[in-house]
Amino acid sequence: MNDTEFFSRERKAGYDPAVNASMNVLLLGTGALGQAAALVLALSQVGRLMLVDFDEFELSNATRSPLFGTSKQRAKHKNLKVACVAEQLAERTHWSDAPRIEYAAARVQELGDAPFAEATIVVCCVDDDPTRAWIATRCHRHGKPMVECGVAGAAGSFALYGDPEGPCWQCGVPVPTGRRVNAGCQANAIELAKQGFAAMTPTLSSVVGAYMAEAAIQFAHGKRDLDGRRVYINDIRRPSIEIIDESYSPNCPCDHAIGTPVVQLTTPVNGSARELLAELEQHFRSPSILLPAPYVVSELCPGPLDDPNGSCQRAVRVGKPDWVIGRHPRCQACGGSSELSADTSMRVAQSIQPFDDDLLDIPLATLGLAPSSWVAVEVADGAVAYAALPIGERPFVSVPKPRRGRGA
């Protein structure tokens, strides 16, 4: 089969296979929506798919997951979604060398800025707002377009943010406060049901995921019809869409200053905040480190897990970025494993300054700074500058195709 025959339908529909082949897609979240988008992108023969997810498959995922791992795959990959999905995609595209499929079984925050620098477009299929905000910031920081989605019951939406001077996801969303409890798909579905929301249907995830993939492909082809706009599917059972223009907000917390020069640092992530501040002082006057996510020093114990009406409210030690924490930590008296803290209330650090004595000797990795991270630095006049941590070992695993070459 020659190249013309291979892409005959795509060419007739106006797609340029060379454009698709030039796409380097960073796809974040491999749940139902992410799988639907990834499958379309893989069949469309994009050049590379970089998949990122930390979550595991649950049986409740199967009816919505076109790439649900086989029992053999789930055993092989210890039930990791992203590894199973990557292998399924390789099998579904065994007839071609493209796309190159890679995955990282991690939270995206653990990967730093390097994947965003590599990508030509980011497809965001995560399900919590603090992580969406973190991703949106890095997309704007590196000038990379972002396709983002949200679903609830029978309704869903997606948006494309491709103009560095235009709106981003955070322009229309209140700054996320607090933190999300990462309790797993089934637990989240149960909690949504308590709030009156139905779980996402396979029809909705398939349609929204396909729309997202198409939006990414159209953007790569230079078509900007949906840039800065959100498409709403109000009820998948009664198909109709509504398109809303989003607006740039001057109060957006996202960094809209694209192309900001950065200082290349040498302090490794196993070095301390004290070491980093010492190096920053060589480049900036009176620097302080603005953390990429809140660092939870201590949190209040909510009470015994088996007593929803119980109350403890004693502070326990945490010492982790908020995106690392799963269920609320509990003190040992309430059946948990956390030690009591000297603090009397919840304490969260947003920055590290030279006088934060109890934080200065904490390793940067523990504070949530990954290799290749751009460190936001507040300087003496209140301005924000950036410095880049050293790039570490590339965290992605390449997945080989079962059989090379093309064939019917």
UniProtKB/TrEMBL annotation:
Transferase listed as a keyword: yes
Organism in which the protein naturally occurs: Botrimarina colliarenosi
GO cellular component: cytoplasm
Keyword set includes Transferase: yes
One GO MF term: nucleotidyltransferase activity
One Pfam family it belongs to: ThiF
EC number(s) from the headed UniProt entry: 2.7.7.73
Transmembrane segments: 21-43
EC top class named in words: transferase
InterPro entries: ThiF/MoeB/HesA, ThiF_NAD_FAD-bd, Ubiquitin-activating_enz
Keywords: Membrane, Nucleotidyltransferase, Transferase, Transmembrane, Transmembrane helix
Protein name in UniProt: Sulfur carrier protein ThiS adenylyltransferase
Domain THIF-type NAD/FAD binding fold: residue ranges: 22-253
Matches recorded under PANTHER family: ADENYLYLTRANSFERASE AND SULFURTRANSFERASE MOCS3, UBIQUITIN-ACTIVATING ENZYME E1
